[in-house]
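Entry type: protein chain
Record version: 2
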Amino acid sequence: MTTSNIYELYPIYDSRKSFYGKAHVKTTKDNIKYLISYDTCIAAIKDGQCYCNGIYSLTSTRHTKEFFKQETGRSYTTKELKNLPSISETGIEMDRAI
């Protein structure tokens, strides 16, 4: 699998001016989008379904909320993020995401 695009996530809805290069989005040729926060794959979107590997830190949670809001238009609470299915449920191997 080859990567079609990797770009830095910039805050649009979050009050921060920048995420200082700590959040990136990887889009695969299959159009699966992965959020990489501090070099860890923490969230994904496949076929419109959001996946989250849990809550890592306040900053990573901000990255996840921003990612989902930009990609789906929906705001998630921290409680809702905790209840989303994990990335392993996408059927994609985790090491292929990074």
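Comment: The mean pLDDT is 90.
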